[in-house]
Design goal:
Length: 85
């Protein structure tokens, strides 16, 4: 899967799942603030990632994720890792 395709797919499910305007999802924006995430929303986010990309997410994976770019980098790395298996 190409990087741009991963980013487009990610933005689409984030905008739909968390009911935010797609234009508010930018690489430098704060993920938690933009999506107004609370602890239960992180569970929804994990479920959305797993169902859209087919890999398991560990809670500790989110420790370094602050911006959407951090999130994209994480998803891209995990998708590429999955493709190698």
């Amino acid at each position: 899967m190409e990087i741009n395709d991963i980013i487009k797919k990610t933005n689409a499910f984030l905008a739909e799942e968390f009911e935010v305007a797609p234009e508010s999802i930018t690489p430098g924006a704060d993920l938690k603030a933009t999506l107004e995430l609370d602890s239960l929303d992180y569970i929804d986010l994990v479920v959305a990632i797993e169902s859209n990309f087919g890999f398991k997410v560990k809670p500790e994976d989110f420790q370094g994720i602050v911006t959407f770019q951090d999130f994209y980098d994480y998803v891209i790395a995990r998708v590429k890792q999955k493709e190698l298996v």
